[in-house]
Every structure is written in structure tokens, then in C-alpha cells.
């Protein structure tokens, strides 16, 4: 989609607005539950407490949504009210070009994420996992498009260049984080389905390797440190979560705490290792220029 017409601008902006409202009115509600048109939806925090997992991160990890929504919101406003419709100007690629090339997947990701807030809030964990996988796939496509777009030779702190880079950062953060969120969702589904402790432990270990593998591959392929750093943020939060409700779930199953401690320690180590890889990736351009 070489040019982003007004209709796609409206669709993109509307989809983002719906996602923002659903996320903060339903998912991040300060109340344990909200009533909308007679239907009750439980907050993310309450649902997470109901289905504890071995990989549930510390609460601070979710603060990453703040910069994601702020950056994506700024890009949306800039696109609608400031940017022109040209795919490229003589001095570089615009935010409009990026949103134009990725608009189908971007709108789909926003609408799926809004749907996820309601599905998850309705206590349908397995269905929400499917929705989260859809979000991760769509954001992967958006990220791939974003990573492939260069500045067209423009450099410096121009409005066009800065807004493009910040939008690319937003999509990189978003894609990397929903990969981690999908892993958490899978583990919650295992709990909701009543799988045994042993099965949940295997899934938790597999989740760690999946998160590390995806992060390292993406960072290496696109020469982008953000996926590794975001994944490190998530893994360390998973490993350092003192509220992992061992006593609420696994004591009842007469399971020793040592394997849980070992798993959390390995998540922490993996997080620091992936983070180090991301920092090195970020430093390479600085050292070689």
C-alpha cells in the first residue's frame, strides 16, 4: 500500500482509539470488574490472580504499556493531523509511509487487542490465548515492515526523522512485548485447563527457551537491540516475581518448592543474558562508526 488515503488514516486512528479504550477501561481498570451493557468484565489483574502461573511477571513489567501507547498515540495523531500522504519526500520516508505499508496488520492488531481485553475479562482464557497469538502475528508483520523502512538518507533531528524513528521504536516495543505476553497467556491457559503441575512446569521451561530464541533471532536478523532488551525486561520480571503464588497452587499438590526456585533463577539468568546481547547489539553501531 504505497499511499495511505484518508480512509485508511481514519481506520488506523479508529482502531487505535478502540484498542486504547478497551485496554484502559476494561483491562487496566482500577476496579476488580466493570459492567458494560449488562455484561461484567474482570480486570487483567484480577484474572491473573485467579490463574497464577510459574511465569507470571512482577507487576512493574506491565508498565511498558505506557510508553508503547504514548508513542503509538503520538504517531497516530501526527499521521492524521500533520503528515502528508506522500510515501516519500525528497529527504526521506514519512510516518505515513510506515503506517500505510502496515495499515492492514496494524488495524487488525489493534482490534484483536481490544477484543482480547473483553475475552480475557470474560474469563475465557483459552480463547484469549488464541486472540493473543493473532495479535503477536499481526504485530510481527507490522514490525517486519517497520524494520525494513529506512530514513531514505535523511539524518539529524528533523521532525520527519524523529517521528519515524519513534514510531519504529513503538512497533518494536509492542511486537516484542506481545511475544512475551503470548507466552504468559499460554501458561495461564494451561492452568485454566487444569493441567498437572508437571505439565505446567514443562510448559514454563519451554516458554523460556521460546522467548529467548525469538528475541535473539529477531535482534540478530533486524540488527535491532529492542526485542532482546524488552524480552530481558520480561524474563527478569518473571524470575523475580516474589508474588508467584507457589503457596496458592503448588502446596496443594504437595510439590517441592525447589524446582520453582530453580525455574525462576533460570529465567533471571536468561533475562540478563538476552539483555546483554541486546546491549552489545546496540553498542556495535556506536563502536564501528
UniProtKB/TrEMBL annotation:
The chain crosses the membrane at residues 169-190, 202-220, 269-288. Keywords: Membrane, Transmembrane, Transmembrane helix. The keyword Transmembrane applies. PANTHER family: SI:CH211-161H7.5-RELATED (PTHR33802), XK-RELATED PROTEIN (PTHR33802:SF1). This is Uncharacterized protein. It comes from Sphaeroforma arctica JP610.
Amino acid at each position: 500500500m504505497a499511499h495511505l488515503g484518508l480512509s485508511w488514516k481514519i481506520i488506523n486512528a479508529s482502531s487505535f482509539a478502540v484498542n486504547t479504550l478497551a485496554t484502559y477501561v476494561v483491562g487496566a481498570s482500577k476496579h476488580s470488574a466493570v459492567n458494560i451493557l449488562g455484561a461484567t468484565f474482570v480486570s487483567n489483574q484480577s484474572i491473573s490472580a485467579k490463574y497464577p502461573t510459574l511465569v507470571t511477571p512482577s507487576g512493574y513489567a506491565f508498565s511498558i504499556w505506557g510508553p508503547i501507547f504514548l508513542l503509538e498515540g503520538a504517531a497516530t495523531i501526527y499521521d492524521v493531523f500533520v503528515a502528508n500522504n506522500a510515501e516519500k519526500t525528497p529527504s526521506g520516508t514519512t510516518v505515513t509511509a510506515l503506517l500505510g505499508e502496515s495499515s492492514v496488520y496494524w488495524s487488525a492488531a489493534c482490534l484483536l487487542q481490544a477484543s482480547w481485553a473483553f475475552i480475557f475479562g470474560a474469563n475465557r482464557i483459552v480463547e484469549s490465548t488464541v486472540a493473543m497469538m493473532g495479535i503477536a502475528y499481526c504485530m510481527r508483520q507490522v514490525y517486519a515492515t517497520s524494520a525494513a523502512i529506512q530514513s531514505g538518507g535523511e539524518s539529524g533531528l528533523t521532525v520527519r526523522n524523529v517521528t519515524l524513528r519513534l514510531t519504529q521504536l513503538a512497533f518494536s516495543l509492542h511486537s516484542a512485548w506481545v511475544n512475551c505476553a503470548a507466552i504468559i497467556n499460554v501458561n495461564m491457559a494451561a492452568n485454566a485447563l487444569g493441567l498437572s503441575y508437571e505439565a505446567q512446569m514443562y510448559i514454563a521451561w519451554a516458554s523460556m527457551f521460546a522467548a529467548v530464541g525469538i528475541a535473539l533471532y529477531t535482534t540478530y536478523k533486524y540488527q535491532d537491540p529492542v526485542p532482546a532488551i524488552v524480552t530481558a525486561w520480561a524474563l527478569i520480571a518473571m524470575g523475580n516475581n516474589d508474588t508467584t503464588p507457589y503457596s496458592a497452587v503448588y502446596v496443594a499438590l504437595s510439590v517441592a518448592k525447589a524446582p520453582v526456585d530453580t525455574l525462576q533463577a533460570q529465567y533471571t539468568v536468561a533475562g540478563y543474558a538476552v539483555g546483554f546481547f541486546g546491549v552489545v547489539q546496540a553498542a556495535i553501531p556506536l563502536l564501528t562508526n
